[in-house]
Amino acid sequence: MSVSKPNEVPEESNTLLHTALFAQVAPDQAEELLPYLMETTLDKGDFIFREGDTDCRLYVLESGKVKLTRTSTDNRVQLLSIHARGEVLGEIPVFDPTGGPRTASAVAMTDDTRVVWLERDALFGWLDKHPRVAINMLQVMAARMRSNNEHISDLVFMDVPARLAKTLLNLGSRFGEPMEDGLLVPHDLTQEEMAQLVGSSRETVNKALTDFSNRGWIARKGRSIIIYQPGMLIRRSRR
C-alpha cells in the first residue's frame, strides 16, 4: 500500500470532487478541499479500514472494487456490500464520531485499487464555511438508508431466486461489460461470497444459478456471469 501527499493528488482526477456528495459544489469551493486530500493505492486483499478502528476519515473509491465485511465472534466473515468507483466509504464514524468504532471492514477486491480520503476535522471545517453543501450530503445519505431498507425488505419478502436475480441485475448495471450476445459481469466473488451477498446458503444460490443457466438466462464463467436475458431476470425478481 502506498500513500500520496495531499498536493500530489491531481485535481482533474479527484474522484471525491465528482461524487454525488459533492455534485452541487461550486468548483472554487471544491478546490478548498484539495490540500487536505490523501490518496492510497492498495493490492487485492489490503484493508482500507478494519472493523473496530476508531479513525474518522471519509473515503471515496477512485478505481477498483471494495467489499465491506463483518466478522462474527466465532470468526465467520459476512460480506455486506460491494462498492465501485466514485462511491463513498466509511461515512458513519465521520458523522457519528461518538457512536463507537467502525462496524465493518473495507477490503480491496482488485490490485491497484485507489482511494482518496479526507479527515473529519477538515471536512467539518469546510462545511462550516459552506453549510448548504450539507443538505446535498443529507440527501445522499438518505438514499443510502433507503437502499439499506430495501435490502432488508428483500430478505424478508423475496425468495432466494428473486433475490439472486435482483443481485445479478444490480451487479450488471454497475460492472457489466457489453458483449455481442450478452452482458459480461465480472463480479470477482467466490461462491460463498455470492451467497452472502444474496443472503442465503451457497447450496441454495448454486441451485438457483444452475436453474437460470439451464433456462438460458445466464452463463457462468469463472468469477463472472454472462447475462443473456435480463428481461427474464427482471421478471423473476418481481415474483
From TrEMBL:
Q: Which InterPro entries match?
A: cNMP-bd_dom (IPR000595), Env_Response_Regulators (IPR050397), HTH_CRP (IPR012318)
Which residue ranges does the record assign to the Cyclic nucleotide-binding domain?
A: 21-123
Pfam families found in the cross-reference section: cNMP_binding, HTH_Crp_2
Location of the HTH crp-type domain: 158-231
The domain of life for this entry's organism is Bacteria
PANTHER family with a match to the protein in the record: CRP FAMILY TRANSCRIPTIONAL REGULATORY PROTEIN (PTHR24567), HTH-TYPE TRANSCRIPTIONAL REGULATOR ARCR (PTHR24567:SF74)
Q: What is this protein called?
A: Crp/Fnr family transcriptional regulator
Q: What is the protein's species of origin? A: Bifidobacterium miconis
